[in-house]
Amino acid sequence: MREFKASLITIVFIFVALFLYTKLAGPIPLAVNSITTTKNDFLNVEGVGEATAIPDTALISLGVTKTAPTVLDAQNQANTVTNKLTEDLKKLGIDKKDIETINYSINPNYDYASGRQTTTGYVVTQNLQVKIKPIELTNKAIDTATSDGANMVGGVTFTLNDEEKSKLEEQARKQAIQKAKEKAQSIANSAGIKLGRIINVQENTTQPRPIPLMEKSDIGLGGSQTSVEPGQSTISITVTLSYQTY
Questions:
Q1: Considering the domain 57-159 in this protein, what is its CATH number?
Q2: Backbone phi and psi for residue 51, each to the nearest 5 degrees, phi listed first
Q3: Alpha-carbon distances of 14 from 10, 17, 27, rounded to whole Å
């Protein structure tokens, strides 16, 4: 009986202690996970800008191939043509640094007429890549090359110098951004939404491809004066603007 009373007193004491703690210390804190979600609305628009100019630089591949009974003979013949060509190009006003050797090869020349492989001589091929500025010298350079004995003429392309490219890119970029802004405002007006700040800008540039002229066999080897035209070169820039909307 005494043990029962002691247990009862202990239980009552615990409940009283908890009651007093709650009143004095406040509610017992509970761990709660709080998740805040936000929804952002965006509008992405694209604008395309273009700028066009006449190319001011020509790139030409000029070369010679010579066949002789010995390597030395073939080399001497090819070198004679190449050296004269280089000097004559410089006389036209083409800078030495713009004349670059891009290929030099020596290969045996074989004959299979007897049913077996027989070396009949050697072929030496040398190619120069020439950057021509001003572009008006292109025709004279081609005619000079063929007159000097070059029998590989071609790979003619027209392009723009770096400074001119930068100017065209700036023009195209401004145009693309303006078009993108106008499109965004038009969409917002039609959809009944308001534009916030621009939060992201992306740009994709399409560089002008060098304009190819014609194949090697078609240029400057027919006896008449060469006449080539550079045409036009276009830079295109696409700008994507991302707006917050509300």
A1: 3.30.70.2970
A2: -140, 135
A3: 6, 5, 17
CATH for 39-56+160-246 is 3.30.110.170
pLDDT in tens, 98-148: 999 999 999 999 988 877 888 999 999 999 999 999 888 999 999 999 999
Residues 6+ apart with CB under 8 A from 4: none
143 token code pair: 């005619």
The predicted-structure confidence for 215-228, as pLDDT tens digits, reads as follows 434 444 455 667 77
DSSP of 42-99: EEEEEEEEEEEE---EEEEEEEEEEEESSHHHHHHHHHHHHHHHHHHHHHTT--GGGE
Domain layout of the chain by residue ranges: 39-56+160-246, 57-159
Which residues in the chain come in under a pLDDT of 50? Answer: 28-39, 213-221
Amino acid at 125: T
